[in-house]
Amino acid sequence: MSRRTKKSYVTPEEYLAFERASEYKSEYYDGEIFAMTGASKEHNLITVNIASEFRAQLKKRDCKTYVNDMRVKVPATGLYTYPDVVVVCGEPQFEDEHFDTLLNPVLVVEVLSKSTARYDRAGKFSDYRSIPSFVEYLLVAQDEHRVEHYARQTDARWLLTEYRSPADVVQLDSIQCSLALEEIYDKVELS
Fold first, then answer.
1. How confident is the model at residue 137 (pLDDT cuts 50, 70, 90)?
2. Which pTM was predicted?
3. How many whole angstroms separate alpha carbon 85 and alpha carbon 108?
4. Which band of pLDDT confidence, cut at 50, 70 and 90, is reported for residue 1?
5. How far is residue 51's CA from residue 184's CA, in Å, rounded to a whole number?
6. Given phi > 0 = left and psi -120 to 50 = alpha, else beta, which region is 90?
7. What is the pLDDT of residue 24?
8. Which of 24, 36, 37, 109 is spaced 20 to 30 Å from 117 by Cα?
9. CA triplet 85, 133, 90: central angle to 5 degrees?
């Protein structure tokens, strides 16, 4: 999340009406709307690379990959957010007949930036964990070869595996896919 756009309390219904009519994206939490900032070229390349790998590997399977514009709602906390990449397997569940707010992600990918890294690791991850279908989380650095892979072990326990070498391959059991870091960072100029 970035900067707040309103100070008075906004209901989820008001947020959705505002968001659906808006020309820019905002996230919503606890009665407040937060305008989202643009992404760097590295961020965009990483997102496209990951989504492309998922699309190729999930072809003809019962999983769908969404990028950037698929809003996710965390029912337990009321957070509305836009993950960089989200995968759902089986029948997608949506909040309403607009089919633009997903309720049952299996895997979420966030590409880290300086302004969002702390929130993606702590706040968002805490919220996402309350979604029963959610079982894997990837945090991907955009300035170095680094992927943090969180996999649900039990309701209260998550296993973190960190990858730092271009030769590393992340195994994603929930969707039976793998992501090679050399593919994630293809054509990305690291600082």
1. very high
2. 0.91
3. 6
4. very low
5. 9
6. left
7. 87
8. 24
9. 80
Distances (CA, A) of 36 to 39, 77, 186: 9, 19, 26
Radius of gyration of the chain (CA): 16
Q: Beta strand pairing status for 136-140 and 32-35? A: unpaired
Closest CA to 179 of 142, 147, 151, 136: 147
Task: Identify the burial level of 21 via C-beta atoms within 10 angstroms of its C-beta, where 0-12 means exposed, 13-18 middle and 19 or more buried.
Answer: exposed
Kindly compute the dihedral angle of the four CA atoms of residues 51, 55, 61, 65, in this order, to the nearest 10 degrees.
Answer: 30
Q: Report the sign of the C-alpha dihedral through residues 113, 115, 121, 126, in that order.
A: negative
Q: Which residue has the tokens 């793998």?
A: 178
What is the average pLDDT across 14-32? 92
